[in-house]
C-alpha cells in the first residue's frame, strides 16, 4: 500500500515538473522571439526618416522594460506556488509512508 502511494506521489510530482517545463519553455520562446525578431522588424520596416520611428523605438524600450519586470515577478510567484505544491505533496508522501 505504501509503495503504491509513493509511486502515485512520484508520478504527480513528475507530472507537475513536466507542466512547469512546458510553461517555462513556452515563455522562453516568446521572450526570445520578442527580443530578437521585433528589433529586426522595427529596423527593416521603418526607416529613420519615418516620423513614427523614434516613438516606436521608445515604446519598444518601455515595453521591454515592463515585460522584463513583469516576467520576473510572474516567474517568482509561479515558482513559489509550484514549490509550495511540491512541498505539500512531499509531506503527504512522508505522512503516508509513516503509517
Give a description of the structure.
By secondary structure, the chain is mostly helical. The chain is 91% helix and 0% strand. Helix 1 (2-45) runs antiparallel to helix 2 (53-98).
Biggest sheet character: none
Percent range of helical residues: over 70%
Return Rg in Å. Answer: 22 Å
Strand content: under 5%
Number of DSSP E strands: 0
Low-confidence stretches: none
Name the shape in a single word: elongated
What's the end-to-end separation, in Å? 10 Å
Q: Average pLDDT value?
A: 77
H-E string: HH
Number of helical elements? 2
Assign the structural class, choosing from mainly alpha, mainly beta, alpha/beta, alpha+beta, or little secondary structure: mainly alpha
List keywords for this structure.
99 residues; mainly alpha; elongated
Which helices and strands occur, and which strands form pairs?
Layout: H1 2-45, H2 53-98
Helix pairs in contact: 1-2
Summarize the structure.
By secondary structure, this protein is an all-alpha fold. It has two helices and no strands.
Amino acid at each position: 500500500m505504501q509503495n503504491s502511494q509513493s509511486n502515485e506521489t512520484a508520478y504527480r510530482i513528475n507530472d507537475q515538473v513536466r507542466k512547469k517545463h512546458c510553461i517555462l519553455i513556452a515563455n522562453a520562446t516568446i521572450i526570445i522571439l520578442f527580443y530578437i525578431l521585433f528589433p529586426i522588424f522595427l529596423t527593416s520596416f521603418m526607416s529613420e526618416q519615418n516620423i513614427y520611428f523614434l516613438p516606436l523605438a521608445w515604446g519598444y524600450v518601455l515595453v521591454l522594460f515592463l515585460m522584463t519586470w513583469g516576467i520576473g515577478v510572474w516567474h517568482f510567484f509561479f515558482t513559489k506556488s509550484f514549490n509550495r505544491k511540491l512541498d505539500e505533496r512531499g509531506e503527504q508522501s512522508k505522512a503516508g509512508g509513516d503509517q
